[in-house]
Design a protein that fits this description.
Blueprint lengths: L15 H16 L1 H14 L9 H14 L1 H12 L4 H9 L1 H18 L9
Helix pairs in contact: 1-6, 3-6, 4-6
Protein name: Glyoxalase
Organism: Rudanella paleaurantiibacter
């Protein structure tokens, strides 16, 4: 895998989880962006969603709902991220798994929503 990209963040991270999010999760998600988009595009026709016909607000809501409620989709996307961890990062993740999993889900939703136009014209 190529080196992780730099992601500018505010140096005011107050918790270990926020620090991990900024130093580890954001660069991983940025590096995996094309794969995340491709997988989500692959997911849409399987759910028979008329995504292209949704209003812009409905598209954003659908993305959030699908990542939060579709267990298979959520676990695949989170697995893509976790699979990029070093053993040291894995140890940090396991220590705060629930919080960091929540943060990964939120970051995934935000990333997909910010690129909603690239998800259109699917299927």
């Amino acid at each position: 895998m190529k080196p992780r990209p730099e992601v500018p963040t505010e140096p005011t991270a107050i918790s270990a989880a926020e620090q991990f999010q900024n130093q580890t999760l954001r660069p991983i998600l940025k590096a995996l962006n094309d794969l995340i988009l491709a997988y989500y595009r692959h997911h849409l026709p399987k759910r028979k969603a008329a995504f292209d016909r949704f209003s812009p607000d409905d598209k954003l809501a659908y993305i959030e709902r699908s990542v939060r409620e579709d267990t298979r989709l959520r676990l695949m996307l989170i697995g893509m991220v976790v699979g990029q961890f070093s053993p040291e990062e894995w140890a940090v993740f396991v220590a705060e798994e629930a919080e960091l999993t929540r943060r990964i889900s939120n970051l995934l939703i935000g990333r997909l929503q910010s690129q909603v136009d690239q998800l259109s014209s699917v299927g």
